[in-house]
């Protein structure tokens, strides 16, 4: 089964992100707004328990950290993805590292850029329009993150939660 | 904020339910297939911690129980809702009771009928067609449930997980 690890920001930040996702993100209906801290990976049923133990240890060794969003950014020209840029605080970067160490699958093939996607798979024209207007905007959202969620993917592409891991 | 308590069945059962929900349930995109064990209720932020303590105690006093689906049923003529009928085993009924006792909001105004909705808000004709064909079908799904999830609702009607509570 395919699993992933995500952080959900507060309802307020999710509502803000959804106001863009509704129009610009075809994944809008598949999962609420989130920060992916571990990209999708495949686990056999028999591997699940050991993985959960590792995730529990990682959560225990993680301190709650601030989640700040000040502006949007994009992965252009690689993809036409626009996202709320999440400040890369140490504790979040360390969490991402820990989630790719030990016996956990290490599928991460590029640098971790913490973000909340709000638009993707746009045409070039649409991308220019939307990003052009959004990049002028400043955001001022800050909150505290104290947990991550292990999710699994259904056949229709949607994600269901399996378990919550709260920090110490 | 509006919260609710749900049980998600296995991926297999969710995929089966989604094969119907995709066509017949306008809530398809708002939450994965689930059993509602506590209807939506409102909590102030300051009430959240105490509620979570209660939910934790309830989970600790609950034994894993079998979830069996043998057939579909409906809430007709009250509503044109069709659902996978979940066998009302004692441990599930007791869990529902416990979730409406103590200091927890007791908003339940009708008898608890454990179910996984697969179709709702159908026209009368559509309902007759779909239910007429589904009620002839037998299902043979059984699995073990060992957790419930506290969810909260976003402005767009979608639900995000807050925390998982695993049984003892």
TrEMBL record, chains A, B:
Residues spanned by motif HXTX 2: 115-118
Catalytic residues, chain numbering: 34, 115
A Pfam entry, by short name: 2_5_RNA_ligase2
Keyword vocabulary terms for this entry: Hydrolase
E.C. numbers: 3.1.-.-
Major enzyme class: hydrolase
Coiled-coil ranges from the UniProt annotation: none
Database matches in Gene3D superfamilies: Cyclic phosphodiesterase (3.90.1140.10)
One function term, GO molecular function aspect: hydrolase activity, acting on ester bonds
Annotated motif HXTX 1, positions: 34-37
Family indicated by similarity: Belongs to the 2H phosphoesterase superfamily. YjcG family.
NCBIfam families: PRK13679.1 (NF010223)
PANTHER family listed in its UniProt record: PHOSPHOESTERASE SAOUHSC_00951-RELATED (PTHR40037:SF1), PHOSPHOESTERASE YJCG-RELATED (PTHR40037)
Protein name in the entry: Putative phosphoesterase NC661_06590
Annotated organism of origin: Aquibacillus koreensis
């Amino acid at each position: 089964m395919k699993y992933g690890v995500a952080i959900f920001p507060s309802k307020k930040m999710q509502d803000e992100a959804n106001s863009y996702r509704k129009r610009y993100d075809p994944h809008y209906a598949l999962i609420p707004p989130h920060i992916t801290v571990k990209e999708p990976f495949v686990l056999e049923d028999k591997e699940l328990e050991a993985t959960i133990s590792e995730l529990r240890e990682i959560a225990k060794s993680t301190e709650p950290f601030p989640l700040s969003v000040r502006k949007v950014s994009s992965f252009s020209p690689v993809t036409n993805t626009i996202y709320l840029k999440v400040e890369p605080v140490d504790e979040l970067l360390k969490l991402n590292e820990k989630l790719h160490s030990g016996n956990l699958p290490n599928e991460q093939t590029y640098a971790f850029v913490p973000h909340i996607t709000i638009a993707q798979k746009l045409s070039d024209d649409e991308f220019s329009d939307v990003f052009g207007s959004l990049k002028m905007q400043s955001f001022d959202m800050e909150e505290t993150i104290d947990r991550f969620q292990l999710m699994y993917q259904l056949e229709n592409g949607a994600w269901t939660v399996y378990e919550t891991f709260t920090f110490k």
